């Protein structure tokens, strides 16, 4: 089929099939159809049945050197055929070996070409699950990662650490959130898709979140996701997202009015050392925003800003006068165990960082940790009651928890 004819054919199919309940035609896909004539003709799905399309797509992606060729083919086909993303959805349709509509075949061809160019699956299908929420994903905003789900879970576990036991000695679910009915105020620095803040708001009904990001694309996407996760009414009440850096936020009216107000600062900042950017996977390097990845010479540029500026924004943190001491030159280091119970009710900082960072952070920050017996700021000017490194589920140091 000649290029122009094929574009017209695709456009007519798009219109003709858009009323069919099984066919979901995306505007992005319609736009992409205009480039379909530039695709190679080496990816033919025949017969146009589920199993054959899946096998051909997986083989094609593998031959193109795509990592995770099979799972890529699975997600792309599930989306192209609009059948849901669960493994059971895939298996049921594979067993039925359903016949795909021409528009679905064309979509699948386009998807495979994009994946062969190493575009991440999440950007191709336009969404991904994070902590049970489906979030819109759009290049170049960073795709939320599974480790970050662990960070959310750590915060929730820490807030709900009062498990109750009933008369039969059985655990009765998780305890109330710390702070009871009081509003819990969260600051999400570098919100990206909004993943961390929105997952926390979804779980913590008394929480509100201020999110900031230097990327306009991220702010727009986080607002879109807030609408779909929280509902239009609640997102305006519980979530605000500002296009600014942490420095700009602190200097702004919003930031000045929020001094000493936040219970939790959370961030998954850019933390990859600049020298390591070139060796990242093509999917990451070519499609995700460099500003979401590059953390400067040692990966800690934004972390230092958070440790420097963050305490003044936290409850009980304003006025300690020690945050400047903690900031510049601090490389972050060794671990002192967090003192169970101490610091409860004080503001906290939760960070996701690179494997090399947590232990180094604990070491560097330990001179700023108050002795166990003291309360408030010590004569040494220490500003934190605890600093601890936490490992991820794979056993790698990954998170840092700082309590004022
Ligand atoms: C690693 S991404 C994390 C995105 C999201 N929080 C997540 O976990 O999926 C880091 C984000 O921080 C933003 N960012 C980088 N420097 C920043 C700064 N100085 N102030 C605020 N945001 C910043 C980037 O634009 C990017 O969206």
Walk me through what this model shows.
The chain is of the alpha/beta class and 404 residues long. It has 2 domains: 2-117, no CATH class; 129-403, 3-Layer(aba) Sandwich (Rossmann fold). It contains 18 helices and 9 strands. Helix 3 (50-63) packs across helix 4 (69-80) and helix 9 (195-203) packs parallel to helix 10. The termini are far apart. S-adenosylmethionine is lined by residues 142, 144, 148, 189-193, 195-196, 212-215, 218, 245-246, 268-270, 289, 291-292, 302.
Key features?
disordered N terminus; two-stranded antiparallel sheet; binds S-adenosylmethionine; 404 residues; 18 helices; 9 strands; alpha/beta; Rossmann fold; 2 domains; elongated
Give a brief outline of the structure.
The chain contains 18 helices and nine strands. With 404 residues, the chain is of the alpha/beta class. S-adenosylmethionine binds at residues 142, 144, 148, 189-193, 195-196, 212-215, 218, 245-246, 268-270, 289, 291-292, 302.
């Amino acid at each position: 089929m000649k290029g122009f004819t094929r574009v017209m054919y695709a456009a007519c199919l798009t219109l003709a099939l858009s009323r069919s309940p099984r066919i979901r035609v995306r505007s992005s896909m319609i736009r992409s159809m205009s480039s379909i004539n530039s695709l190679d003709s080496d990816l033919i799905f025949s017969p146009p049945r589920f199993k054959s399309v899946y096998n051909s797509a997986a083989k094609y992606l593998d031959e193109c050197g795509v990592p995770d060729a099979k799972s890529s083919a699975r997600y792309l086909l599930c989306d192209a055929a609009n059948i849901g993303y669960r493994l059971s959805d895939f298996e049921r349709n594979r067993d039925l070996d359903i016949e795909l509509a021409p528009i679905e075949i064309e979509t699948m061809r386009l998807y495979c070409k994009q994946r062969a160019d190493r575009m991440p699956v999440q950007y191709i299908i336009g969404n991904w699950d994070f902590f049970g929420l489906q979030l819109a994903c759009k290049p170049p905003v960073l795709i939320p990662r599974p480790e970050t789900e662990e960070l959310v879970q750590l915060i929730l576990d820490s807030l709900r650490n009062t498990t109750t036991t009933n008369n039969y000695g059985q655990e009765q679910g998780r305890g109330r959130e710390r702070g009871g009915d009081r509003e819990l105020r969260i600051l999400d620095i570098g919100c990206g898709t909004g993943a961390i803040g929105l997952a926390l708001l979804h779980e913590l009904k008394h929480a509100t979140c201020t999110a900031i990001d230097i990327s306009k694309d991220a702010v727009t996407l986080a607002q879109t996701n807030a609408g779909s996760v929280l509902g239009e009414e609640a997102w305006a009440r519980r979530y605000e997202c500002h296009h600014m850096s942490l420095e700009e936020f602190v200097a702004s009216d919003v930031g000045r009015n929020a001094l000493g107000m936040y219970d939790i600062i959370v961030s998954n900042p850019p933390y990859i050392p600049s020298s390591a950017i070139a060796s990242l996977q093509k999917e990451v390097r070519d499609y995700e925003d460099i500003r979401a990845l590059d953390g400067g010479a040692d990966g800690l540029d934004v972390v230092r800003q958070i440790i420097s500026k963050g305490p003044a924004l936290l409850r009980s943190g304003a006025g300690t006068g020690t945050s400047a001491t903690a900031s510049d030159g601090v490389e972050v280091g060794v671990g002192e165990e967090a003192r169970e119970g101490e610091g409860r009710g004080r503001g906290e900082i939760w960070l996701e960082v690179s494997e090399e960072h947590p232990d180094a952070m604990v070491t560097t920050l330990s001179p700023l940790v108050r002795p166990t017996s003291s309360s408030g700021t010590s004569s040494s000017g220490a500003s934190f009651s605890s600093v601890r490194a936490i490992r991820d589920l794979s056993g790698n140091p990954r998170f840092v928890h700082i309590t004022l």
